[in-house]
Amino acid sequence: MEKQQLSECLKKFYLCIRKKDGSFFKVSSLKAIRAAVERFLKSAPNSKPWSIISDPQFKEANDALDAFAKSIRREGKVGGVVHKNPITKEQIEMLFERQQLGPADAKCPSQLLRTSWFYITLYFGKRGRENQRQMTKTMLALRRTPLGKRYYELQRQLPGAVLATKNHQGGLNDEEDESDGKMFEVPGSPRCPVQTVENYISHLNPEMEFLFQRPRVVSSKFNPEADTVWFCNSPLGVSYLSTMMRTMSLNAEINPPLSNHCVRATSVTILSDANVEARHIKCITGHKSDTSIESYSAKPSFQQKEKMSSILSSFVGGENFNTPHQDQQISEADLVDIPQSCPVVPRPPLENLSLSVNVQQPSTSTTTLPSRQAFFQASAPNFQFQGCSVSIVNNNFFGSPQ
Q: Is the pTM higher than 0.70?
Protein backbone atom coordinates (compact mmCIF):
# COMPACT_ATOMS: atom_id res chain seq x y z
CA MET A 1 0.00 0.00 0.00
CA GLU A 2 1.32 3.43 -0.95
CA LYS A 3 1.65 6.24 1.55
CA GLN A 4 -1.26 8.18 0.11
CA GLN A 5 -3.59 5.18 0.29
CA LEU A 6 -2.47 4.40 3.83
CA SER A 7 -3.04 8.03 4.84
CA GLU A 8 -6.64 7.85 3.59
CA CYS A 9 -7.22 4.60 5.47
CA LEU A 10 -5.76 6.01 8.67
CA LYS A 11 -7.90 9.13 8.34
CA LYS A 12 -11.08 7.02 8.23
CA PHE A 13 -9.78 4.76 10.99
CA TYR A 14 -9.02 7.67 13.35
CA LEU A 15 -12.51 9.17 12.88
CA CYS A 16 -14.39 5.89 13.33
CA ILE A 17 -12.51 4.28 16.21
CA ARG A 18 -14.68 3.60 19.28
CA LYS A 19 -14.71 1.45 22.40
CA LYS A 20 -16.75 -1.75 22.60
CA ASP A 21 -19.64 0.09 24.22
CA GLY A 22 -19.62 2.76 21.50
CA SER A 23 -18.07 5.51 23.63
CA PHE A 24 -15.10 7.61 22.56
CA PHE A 25 -11.49 7.05 23.56
CA LYS A 26 -9.70 9.74 25.51
CA VAL A 27 -7.22 11.91 23.65
CA SER A 28 -4.29 10.19 25.38
CA SER A 29 -5.65 6.81 24.23
CA LEU A 30 -5.96 8.04 20.65
CA LYS A 31 -2.31 9.09 20.70
CA ALA A 32 -1.34 5.71 22.14
CA ILE A 33 -3.27 3.87 19.42
CA ARG A 34 -1.53 5.90 16.71
CA ALA A 35 1.85 5.13 18.30
CA ALA A 36 0.96 1.41 18.41
CA VAL A 37 0.14 1.44 14.67
CA GLU A 38 3.50 3.08 14.00
CA ARG A 39 5.37 0.44 16.02
CA PHE A 40 3.56 -2.27 14.08
CA LEU A 41 4.53 -0.76 10.74
CA LYS A 42 8.17 -0.30 11.73
CA SER A 43 8.64 -3.76 13.21
CA ALA A 44 9.37 -6.89 11.16
CA PRO A 45 8.18 -8.07 8.74
CA ASN A 46 6.76 -4.67 7.70
CA SER A 47 9.93 -2.69 8.52
CA LYS A 48 8.65 0.61 7.11
CA PRO A 49 11.40 3.30 7.10
CA TRP A 50 8.99 6.21 7.45
CA SER A 51 6.75 7.49 10.26
CA ILE A 52 2.99 7.98 10.14
CA ILE A 53 3.40 10.65 12.81
CA SER A 54 6.11 12.90 11.35
CA ASP A 55 6.08 12.12 7.61
CA PRO A 56 4.55 15.06 5.63
CA GLN A 57 2.49 12.70 3.47
CA PHE A 58 0.46 11.70 6.56
CA LYS A 59 -0.27 15.30 7.53
CA GLU A 60 -3.87 15.11 6.34
CA ALA A 61 -4.58 12.04 8.50
CA ASN A 62 -2.88 13.59 11.53
CA ASP A 63 -4.77 16.87 11.05
CA ALA A 64 -8.02 14.92 10.93
CA LEU A 65 -7.10 13.14 14.17
CA ASP A 66 -6.17 16.44 15.80
CA ALA A 67 -9.48 18.05 14.77
CA PHE A 68 -11.40 14.98 15.97
CA ALA A 69 -9.65 15.05 19.36
CA LYS A 70 -10.43 18.74 19.80
CA SER A 71 -14.05 18.16 18.81
CA ILE A 72 -14.80 15.39 21.29
CA ARG A 73 -13.06 17.32 24.06
CA ARG A 74 -14.93 20.54 23.24
CA GLU A 75 -18.28 18.74 23.13
CA GLY A 76 -17.62 17.02 26.45
CA LYS A 77 -17.69 13.49 25.06
CA VAL A 78 -14.53 12.37 26.89
CA GLY A 79 -13.10 12.92 30.34
CA GLY A 80 -9.67 14.12 31.35
CA VAL A 81 -6.64 12.06 32.21
CA VAL A 82 -6.71 10.87 35.83
CA HIS A 83 -3.20 10.74 37.25
CA LYS A 84 -2.31 8.44 40.10
CA ASN A 85 -2.18 10.64 43.18
CA PRO A 86 0.22 9.98 46.05
CA ILE A 87 -1.17 8.55 49.26
CA THR A 88 -1.79 11.14 51.98
CA LYS A 89 -0.92 10.84 55.66
CA GLU A 90 -4.62 10.70 56.51
CA GLN A 91 -5.09 7.73 54.19
CA ILE A 92 -2.10 5.96 55.72
CA GLU A 93 -3.64 6.39 59.15
CA MET A 94 -6.95 5.05 57.88
CA LEU A 95 -5.19 1.95 56.54
CA PHE A 96 -3.64 1.34 59.95
CA GLU A 97 -6.85 2.10 61.87
CA ARG A 98 -8.86 -0.29 59.67
CA GLN A 99 -6.14 -2.93 60.20
CA GLN A 100 -5.23 -3.19 56.53
CA LEU A 101 -1.70 -2.28 57.60
CA GLY A 102 -0.31 -3.34 60.95
CA PRO A 103 2.60 -3.10 63.37
CA ALA A 104 5.91 -4.88 62.99
CA ASP A 105 4.85 -7.63 65.43
CA ALA A 106 1.49 -8.31 63.76
CA LYS A 107 0.01 -11.71 64.49
CA CYS A 108 -2.32 -11.81 61.47
CA PRO A 109 -0.65 -13.42 58.41
CA SER A 110 -2.74 -11.46 55.90
CA GLN A 111 -2.05 -8.16 57.62
CA LEU A 112 1.67 -8.91 57.86
CA LEU A 113 1.73 -9.77 54.13
CA ARG A 114 0.00 -6.52 53.16
CA THR A 115 2.25 -4.38 55.35
CA SER A 116 5.45 -6.02 54.10
CA TRP A 117 4.31 -5.68 50.49
CA PHE A 118 3.54 -1.99 51.07
CA TYR A 119 6.96 -1.26 52.60
CA ILE A 120 8.84 -3.12 49.86
CA THR A 121 6.91 -1.26 47.16
CA LEU A 122 7.36 2.11 48.88
CA TYR A 123 11.05 1.91 49.76
CA PHE A 124 12.24 0.23 46.58
CA GLY A 125 10.02 2.23 44.21
CA LYS A 126 8.37 -0.80 42.62
CA ARG A 127 5.83 -0.11 39.87
CA GLY A 128 2.37 -1.64 40.25
CA ARG A 129 2.61 -5.38 39.75
CA GLU A 130 5.83 -5.24 37.74
CA ASN A 131 8.06 -8.24 38.53
CA GLN A 132 6.62 -8.67 42.02
CA ARG A 133 5.44 -12.17 41.21
CA GLN A 134 9.04 -13.18 40.38
CA MET A 135 10.62 -11.79 43.56
CA THR A 136 12.25 -14.41 45.80
CA LYS A 137 13.27 -14.42 49.45
CA THR A 138 16.97 -14.42 48.59
CA MET A 139 16.66 -11.16 46.65
CA LEU A 140 16.33 -9.24 49.93
CA ALA A 141 19.49 -8.98 52.03
CA LEU A 142 19.62 -7.71 55.61
CA ARG A 143 22.78 -5.61 56.16
CA ARG A 144 24.34 -3.55 58.93
CA THR A 145 26.12 -0.22 58.76
CA PRO A 146 29.49 0.24 60.56
CA LEU A 147 27.48 1.80 63.40
CA GLY A 148 25.23 -1.24 63.64
CA LYS A 149 22.08 0.16 62.00
CA ARG A 150 20.22 -2.50 60.05
CA TYR A 151 18.75 -2.10 56.57
CA TYR A 152 17.39 -4.15 53.70
CA GLU A 153 18.57 -3.93 50.11
CA LEU A 154 18.16 -5.91 46.90
CA GLN A 155 21.03 -8.27 46.07
CA ARG A 156 21.68 -6.96 42.59
CA GLN A 157 24.38 -9.53 41.89
CA LEU A 158 21.90 -12.43 42.02
CA PRO A 159 20.30 -13.59 38.76
CA GLY A 160 16.78 -12.20 38.52
CA ALA A 161 17.25 -9.53 41.20
CA VAL A 162 17.17 -6.79 38.52
CA LEU A 163 14.49 -7.90 36.10
CA ALA A 164 13.36 -6.09 32.96
CA THR A 165 11.02 -3.19 33.58
CA LYS A 166 9.10 -0.67 31.50
CA ASN A 167 11.97 1.83 31.75
CA HIS A 168 14.76 -0.74 31.43
CA GLN A 169 13.87 -3.56 29.06
CA GLY A 170 17.40 -4.95 28.87
CA GLY A 171 18.16 -4.50 25.17
CA LEU A 172 21.57 -3.86 23.69
CA ASN A 173 20.84 -0.15 23.39
CA ASP A 174 19.19 0.14 26.79
CA GLU A 175 20.80 1.76 29.80
CA GLU A 176 21.54 -0.31 32.89
CA ASP A 177 18.96 -0.14 35.68
CA GLU A 178 20.85 1.58 38.49
CA SER A 179 17.99 1.64 41.00
CA ASP A 180 19.37 0.68 44.39
CA GLY A 181 17.03 1.70 47.21
CA LYS A 182 17.60 0.99 50.89
CA MET A 183 15.15 0.33 53.70
CA PHE A 184 16.61 1.39 57.05
CA GLU A 185 15.21 0.45 60.42
CA VAL A 186 13.49 2.88 62.77
CA PRO A 187 14.46 1.64 66.25
CA GLY A 188 11.68 1.83 68.80
CA SER A 189 8.94 2.43 66.24
CA PRO A 190 6.02 -0.04 66.15
CA ARG A 191 5.92 0.58 62.38
CA CYS A 192 9.59 -0.13 61.72
CA PRO A 193 9.79 -1.41 58.13
CA VAL A 194 12.86 -3.58 58.74
CA GLN A 195 11.31 -5.35 61.72
CA THR A 196 8.08 -5.83 59.74
CA VAL A 197 9.79 -7.45 56.74
CA GLU A 198 12.05 -9.49 59.03
CA ASN A 199 9.02 -10.80 60.90
CA TYR A 200 7.30 -11.59 57.59
CA ILE A 201 10.26 -13.52 56.16
CA SER A 202 10.67 -15.53 59.37
CA HIS A 203 7.15 -16.96 58.95
CA LEU A 204 7.33 -17.77 55.22
CA ASN A 205 7.00 -21.33 54.01
CA PRO A 206 10.54 -22.77 53.77
CA GLU A 207 9.57 -24.97 50.82
CA MET A 208 8.61 -22.00 48.66
CA GLU A 209 11.27 -19.66 47.24
CA PHE A 210 8.96 -16.84 46.17
CA LEU A 211 8.72 -13.81 48.43
CA PHE A 212 4.97 -13.18 48.30
CA GLN A 213 3.16 -16.32 49.44
CA ARG A 214 -0.47 -17.08 50.10
CA PRO A 215 -1.36 -16.61 53.81
CA ARG A 216 -2.90 -19.45 55.78
CA VAL A 217 -6.38 -19.02 57.20
CA VAL A 218 -6.74 -19.21 60.97
CA SER A 219 -8.58 -22.41 61.85
CA SER A 220 -8.48 -25.37 64.19
CA LYS A 221 -5.45 -26.62 62.23
CA PHE A 222 -3.55 -23.33 62.24
CA ASN A 223 -2.84 -20.99 65.13
CA PRO A 224 -0.39 -18.08 64.57
CA GLU A 225 0.45 -18.08 68.27
CA ALA A 226 1.66 -21.67 68.17
CA ASP A 227 2.71 -22.33 64.55
CA THR A 228 5.85 -20.96 62.95
CA VAL A 229 4.88 -21.27 59.28
CA TRP A 230 2.09 -18.81 58.48
CA PHE A 231 2.02 -19.13 54.69
CA CYS A 232 1.12 -21.83 52.18
CA ASN A 233 3.40 -23.56 49.75
CA SER A 234 1.98 -21.50 46.86
CA PRO A 235 2.84 -18.00 45.59
CA LEU A 236 0.42 -15.14 45.17
CA GLY A 237 -0.79 -14.68 41.61
CA VAL A 238 -0.22 -11.68 39.37
CA SER A 239 -3.87 -10.63 39.59
CA TYR A 240 -3.82 -10.72 43.39
CA LEU A 241 -0.67 -8.59 43.57
CA SER A 242 -1.91 -6.15 40.93
CA THR A 243 -4.98 -5.25 43.02
CA MET A 244 -3.29 -5.26 46.43
CA MET A 245 -3.57 -1.52 47.10
CA ARG A 246 -7.06 -1.26 45.64
CA THR A 247 -8.32 -4.07 47.86
CA MET A 248 -6.79 -2.49 50.96
CA SER A 249 -8.23 0.95 50.23
CA LEU A 250 -11.71 -0.43 49.56
CA ASN A 251 -11.63 -2.35 52.85
CA ALA A 252 -10.51 0.85 54.58
CA GLU A 253 -13.39 2.76 52.89
CA ILE A 254 -11.03 5.12 51.07
CA ASN A 255 -12.78 6.72 48.11
CA PRO A 256 -11.70 6.95 45.36
CA PRO A 257 -9.76 3.71 45.84
CA LEU A 258 -5.98 3.70 45.54
CA SER A 259 -3.93 1.69 43.08
CA ASN A 260 -0.52 0.03 43.29
CA HIS A 261 0.98 2.86 41.26
CA CYS A 262 -0.12 5.32 43.96
CA VAL A 263 2.58 3.83 46.19
CA ARG A 264 5.27 4.57 43.60
CA ALA A 265 3.87 8.08 43.14
CA THR A 266 4.04 8.50 46.93
CA SER A 267 7.74 7.58 46.99
CA VAL A 268 8.58 10.20 44.35
CA THR A 269 6.34 12.94 45.75
CA ILE A 270 7.42 12.60 49.38
CA LEU A 271 11.11 12.66 48.45
CA SER A 272 10.63 15.56 46.03
CA ASP A 273 8.71 17.61 48.62
CA ALA A 274 11.63 17.01 51.00
CA ASN A 275 13.94 18.63 48.38
CA VAL A 276 15.71 15.38 47.50
CA GLU A 277 17.44 15.81 44.14
CA ALA A 278 15.89 14.13 41.11
CA ARG A 279 19.10 12.21 40.37
CA HIS A 280 18.91 10.64 43.83
CA ILE A 281 15.22 9.79 43.48
CA LYS A 282 15.98 8.00 40.19
CA CYS A 283 18.38 5.74 42.11
CA ILE A 284 15.35 4.37 43.97
CA THR A 285 12.61 4.35 41.36
CA GLY A 286 14.69 3.52 38.29
CA HIS A 287 13.32 6.38 36.19
CA LYS A 288 15.43 7.22 33.15
CA SER A 289 15.13 11.01 33.07
CA ASP A 290 14.54 13.96 35.36
CA THR A 291 11.46 14.79 33.30
CA SER A 292 9.77 11.62 34.53
CA ILE A 293 10.43 12.66 38.13
CA GLU A 294 9.18 16.18 37.45
CA SER A 295 5.90 14.80 36.12
CA TYR A 296 5.18 13.74 39.71
CA SER A 297 6.72 16.64 41.62
CA ALA A 298 5.28 19.34 39.34
CA LYS A 299 1.81 18.57 40.67
CA PRO A 300 0.95 19.96 44.12
CA SER A 301 0.29 17.50 46.90
CA PHE A 302 -3.12 17.04 48.47
CA GLN A 303 -2.09 19.15 51.47
CA GLN A 304 -0.87 21.93 49.17
CA LYS A 305 -4.16 21.89 47.28
CA GLU A 306 -6.01 22.12 50.59
CA LYS A 307 -3.90 25.14 51.56
CA MET A 308 -4.60 26.86 48.24
CA SER A 309 -8.32 26.24 48.72
CA SER A 310 -8.11 27.82 52.19
CA ILE A 311 -6.39 30.88 50.72
CA LEU A 312 -9.19 31.33 48.20
CA SER A 313 -11.82 30.74 50.90
CA SER A 314 -10.22 33.38 53.11
CA PHE A 315 -10.44 35.85 50.21
CA VAL A 316 -14.14 35.14 49.72
CA GLY A 317 -14.94 35.03 53.43
CA GLY A 318 -12.93 38.13 54.35
CA GLU A 319 -10.80 36.20 56.81
CA ASN A 320 -7.08 36.55 57.41
CA PHE A 321 -5.34 33.43 56.15
CA ASN A 322 -2.28 34.16 58.30
CA THR A 323 -4.22 33.49 61.50
CA PRO A 324 -3.47 30.11 63.09
CA HIS A 325 -5.61 27.14 62.24
CA GLN A 326 -8.45 26.57 64.62
CA ASP A 327 -6.88 23.36 65.84
CA GLN A 328 -3.56 25.10 66.41
CA GLN A 329 -4.75 28.16 68.35
CA ILE A 330 -3.30 28.45 71.84
CA SER A 331 -5.80 28.87 74.66
CA GLU A 332 -5.17 30.78 77.87
CA ALA A 333 -4.96 27.49 79.73
CA ASP A 334 -2.14 26.35 77.45
CA LEU A 335 -0.11 29.46 78.31
CA VAL A 336 0.50 28.08 81.78
CA ASP A 337 2.96 25.60 80.30
CA ILE A 338 5.09 28.33 78.72
CA PRO A 339 8.30 28.81 80.78
CA GLN A 340 8.33 32.11 82.65
CA SER A 341 12.10 32.31 82.19
CA CYS A 342 11.55 33.44 78.59
CA PRO A 343 9.78 36.79 78.90
CA VAL A 344 8.46 38.50 75.80
CA VAL A 345 10.52 41.64 75.19
CA PRO A 346 8.38 44.59 74.00
CA ARG A 347 9.51 46.75 71.11
CA PRO A 348 10.78 50.18 72.22
CA PRO A 349 8.73 53.32 71.56
CA LEU A 350 9.56 55.13 68.38
CA GLU A 351 10.57 58.33 70.19
CA ASN A 352 13.29 56.52 72.11
CA LEU A 353 15.16 55.60 68.94
CA SER A 354 17.83 57.60 67.16
CA LEU A 355 19.78 56.74 64.07
CA SER A 356 23.00 58.43 62.94
CA VAL A 357 24.67 57.74 59.59
CA ASN A 358 27.90 59.30 58.32
CA VAL A 359 27.46 59.67 54.57
CA GLN A 360 30.92 61.10 53.86
CA GLN A 361 32.79 57.86 54.34
CA PRO A 362 32.12 54.27 55.31
CA SER A 363 30.99 54.26 58.88
CA THR A 364 29.11 52.30 61.51
CA SER A 365 25.49 53.13 62.20
CA THR A 366 24.45 52.54 65.78
CA THR A 367 21.00 52.63 67.26
CA THR A 368 21.19 54.30 70.67
CA LEU A 369 18.62 53.68 73.35
CA PRO A 370 18.16 54.71 76.96
CA SER A 371 20.37 52.82 79.37
CA ARG A 372 17.48 50.87 80.83
CA GLN A 373 16.90 49.37 77.37
CA ALA A 374 20.52 48.89 76.46
CA PHE A 375 19.87 45.37 75.24
CA PHE A 376 18.32 46.85 72.09
CA GLN A 377 21.64 48.22 70.82
CA ALA A 378 22.47 46.97 67.34
CA SER A 379 25.14 47.73 64.78
CA ALA A 380 24.39 48.14 61.11
CA PRO A 381 26.82 47.24 58.33
CA ASN A 382 29.13 49.85 56.79
CA PHE A 383 27.47 52.04 54.14
CA GLN A 384 28.92 54.37 51.53
CA PHE A 385 26.52 56.87 49.90
CA GLN A 386 27.46 59.01 46.94
CA GLY A 387 25.10 61.84 45.92
CA CYS A 388 21.86 60.00 46.58
CA SER A 389 19.02 60.02 49.07
CA VAL A 390 18.75 56.96 51.29
CA SER A 391 15.84 55.64 53.30
CA ILE A 392 16.61 52.96 55.91
CA VAL A 393 13.78 50.98 57.50
CA ASN A 394 14.42 48.49 60.29
CA ASN A 395 11.32 46.36 60.65
CA ASN A 396 12.62 44.94 63.91
CA PHE A 397 12.39 48.30 65.71
CA PHE A 398 10.33 50.77 63.69
CA GLY A 399 6.91 49.39 64.51
CA SER A 400 3.99 50.49 66.57
CA PRO A 401 4.60 50.36 70.33
CA GLN A 402 3.21 47.46 72.21
A: no
